[in-house]
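Submission sheet (multi-component)
Chains listed below:
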Amino acid sequence: MADTIIQGVLLGGLYCLFALGLSLMFGVMRLTNIAQGDFIVMASFGAVALASVIGERPLWIALVLLPAGFAVGYLLQRYLLNGTLGRDPLPSLVVTFGLSIIVQNALLEVFSADPRALGSGGLNTRSIAIGPVTVGELPLLILATALACTGGLQTLFSQTAAGRAFRAVSDDRDIARLMGVQADRVYATATAIAFALIALAGVFQAMRTTVAPADGPMLLLFAFEAVIIGGMGSFWGTLVGALVLGVTQQVGFAFDPGWGLWFGHLVFLAVLVVRPQGLFPKTKG
Amino acid sequence: MRGAVVRTHALEARYGDAQALFGIDFELAQGELVAIIGANGAGKSTFLKALTGLVPVERAAVHLFDEAIGGLPPELIVRRGLAMVPEGRRLFPSLSVEENLRMGSFARRAGPWTLDRLYAMFPVLKDKRRSPSGALSGGQQQMVSIGRALMSNPAVLLCDELSLGLAPVVVKEIYAAMPAIAAEGMSIVVVEQDVSLAQSVSSRVYCFQEGRVSLEGPSDRLTRAQISEAYFGT
Amino acid sequence: MGAEVVRSTRAGNAMLAGGAVWVVFAASIPLWGESSWMREMVEMSCYFIFAMMWNLLAGYGGMVSVGQQAFFGLGGYVMLALGNLLGINPFVAIPIAALTGAAIAIPVSIVAFRLQGGYFAIGTWVIAEVFRLTVANIAAVGGGSGTSLTALRGIDRVTRTNLTYWIALSCVIACVGGVYLFLRSKEGLALQAIRDNEVAAESQGIAVGRVKLAVYVVAAFGSAMAGALYFVGNLRISPDAAFGVNWTAFAIFIVVIGGIGRIEGPMVGAVIFWLVNKYFADYGTWYQLGLGLFAVIVTLRFRQGIWGWIQDGFGLSLFPTQRRLRLP
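Outcome: structure written.
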């Protein structure tokens, strides 16, 4: 059982990376990115494609894909998604849903339906001993990265001028503009950061397991469940939610492989019914 | 008036299909404190929103320092020296008091107003600077809102209903700070429901009625009867 | 004689007459038409009814759902279970499945309504996934690979096709008529008031929560009906086919292209979808990519959809649900 829980925690690290971008975009501009999972898969395929050109060097691949993700996110928000923001949630939902379909089918066209993976030079097979337990090096790296990203985002939001701008524009866009905040650019920057995280998540996902074009929706649901379980107040909440989800899934798999995911969904629904504001809700002053 | 800091000419504004302002002519001279009075719905707040870029208007309808700024986005207008204390305070709930004040200096204009100077003017804010802005009393929130606008070092300050929802003694305290604010030559527009308060703090008064200027004149020379007629439009 | 509140329009009355003619014409097709046409029309009817329900939820109820396929699949499986396991005639099972969908929607709403906006949308998707995973683990209805509808084996093919067709036609008429009458009613007006301004509606004494629940239940009823009907026509069901998100994708396409929040919208959208599907479905991934792209462009440029664009241009309203004040 202890081993299952540890596996769950490590899995939760990856789910946290899936979820941070979703949480960020919703927090700053109330935009739900239905294509979140599909863009992660796109990043995974990008990593695989890049590997066929420069060889299997995950670090270099990440160094290329992260800024690329940043740029893609910035442009997407600035020139496409900014036009969908407003009181009505429908346009952003339909557009991101449309993007989800476009990305999935584009990947299918370019890469076919075969699952691919990114070689990590053996990183995904090596283990390290920590006390009485042995954990894989890759999952540990992912968890460490997730912790760093969560801490980084939290610090960005609470200690920097940019973070103040994010929070201000999320609270009251018009008054923020009155202070000189260029809302359009702030939104674009938020999405840019979210997409850099998506790129990172995609590279890790490809290293950890095989990816196929149709995987997107599943990753979106995991990201979403992590955000809701954790509560929409903080990034640490999202991390905790992701860990809870990872553990619940692993425990479920341990009981019966057919019911693993179902168990995770069930815990999500239970949290929603019993404590809808999540484990770490936002407290507004 | 020559050298008017803010000038509007035949300013019109709409909310969707409804027209709110029907040709407002307005002037504010350097260092003046002008008051705008009028009943609810007369268009006072809309007028301030038109000046700050929150409501779209014709480019040439509003001039700031002889430059046409009508319809420019708010984030550009504040950089040119026009700041507003919005109606109802509208502080950022996710930010602390100090963070709210710091947001004011986002536009990074040079000038005498700094956090320290604000804390000197409103000492209670220094004590509460790490509190979430929502935890303060109405009067204290109003101080934060004024401070936030001052942090952008504006040349022109617009104040929308500072007294709204505040006890008279608190209102007095807030307005007592006005001279210090106006001391370096800042030009101020004050929108007020309280007519006698508006008259007492300003040198000139405009009265709005259903989107038009119904009266304009020196504060100390307008009579009760004149104002009443302009206010209610009888 | 003062001002009067009017409902019908001249175009609307013409529509009623034209609609009656169309119904008579459509009902006669089995007598002289090919069976492939009827199968196509049954399939399109299902897409159309499902899209109308999505439109009711999103366009009128303000609840955008990406998981409405939960009830579509539920309807299909209930119909199948009643037919295969209990020997109930599948045609009779369709309304029962629809009622089951409505009944299940009530406890489901307790969970779903905890969320709003975009998170509500994804939440409904999670619920659909739970339905799919649950059903995929039930061996009695074929588990993960699905099963066939055996209950109609005794009927000859022609009769089965014709009956399915007429039932589909009845379902479409019931759906359109039902939605139209609902929206014209007091509840319907309450719904539109909520959609326009929830806070104002509440201050007028409208029980927002109850109205939203009513819409959710009605939409579940219709979706389940569409699902049951579809698999009566298809004869084979599987969890992926029944609970796939592509149902919602097609519904979104139909409604957004045609025009959301209007009754004519999904009709126009369904016709366009049928044409597009007929000529381009063979292109597989490019076809789906094109649908997605089309939906994105229409949302960004033609918020009111194609019918809405026409309606605004010509001032037409074929299914008037607004009450207009005619002044003396």
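Remark: Residues 99 and 130 of chain B are 8 Å apart (CA to CA).
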